Amino acid sequence: MELPSSTLAQAVEALSSLPGVGKRSALRYALHLLQQPTDDVLLLSDAIHRLTTDIRYCRICHSISDSDLCPICASPKRVQSIVCVVENIQDVMAIENTQQYRGLYHVLGGVISPIDGIGIRDLHIDTLLSRIQQGTPAPIEEVILALPTTMEGDTTNFYLNKQLQPMGVKVTTIARGVAIGDNLEYADEITLGRSILHRIPFGG
User: Fold this and answer.
1) 9: Cα within 13 Å, side-chain hemisphere
2) Domain range holding 102?
3) Domain count, the chain
């Protein structure tokens, strides 16, 4: 794509690196920004820059936060004895949008996928096991496995279940209202909410 400005070309290249953004869409975004007031563009630029400087990760669940603890882990209104294990932060948001779950979370940061070079040590599994062993911040009675219904998600579920069983906690999984091969973030809120409410024993 030949562009009349190297600066515009650099902006298009940067924007097209975003997921789902092709070169044509990136050019449209860049030209749109070019027509906006300078202050508005600087606000956008500052907001993006602050993503890399101000966002923190919760020391307990690994979700994003503005402080040492995310709002969910810090809330005394959440059920402290239940932890829902999810692949990523988008899954936390998807489940929260259902307004059907009042427990805590643990974000693994991915799923076991040897073909992608993602192994056990690349995920937040050790901190999950330590959290349950130590009973901090409160004793954990149930772990809900809410990982994607994919081969990689199932592999991770089986590994986690094997590690959790000797600890004496109840291990459940979301009901199969979520279609096989789906990610939680793409499930509609009603289906996902029902899947959480009607969770079943893992392997049951």
Assistant:
1) 6
2) 73-201
3) 2
SS (H, E, C) the chain: CCCCCHHHHHHHHHHCCCCCCCHHHHHHHHHHHHCCCHHHHHHHHHHHHHHHHCCEECCCCCCEECCCCCHHHHCCCCCCCEEEEECCHHHHHHHHHHCCCCCEEEECCCCCEHHHCECHHHCCHHHHHHHHHHCCCCCCCEEEECCCCCHHHHHHHHHHHHHHHHHCCEEEECCCCCCCCCCHHHCCHHHHHHHHHCCEECCC
Cis peptide before 137 (omega within 30 of 0): yes
Q: Is residue 58 part of a domain?
A: no
Question: Is residue 94 within 8 Å of residue 87, measured between CB atoms?
Answer: no
> pLDDT digit string (tens) for 148-193?
888 999 999 999 999 999 999 999 998 665 444 455 555 566 667 7
Mean pLDDT on 62-84: 95
Residue 74 scores a pLDDT above 80: yes
Sign of CA dihedral 174, 175, 177, 183: positive
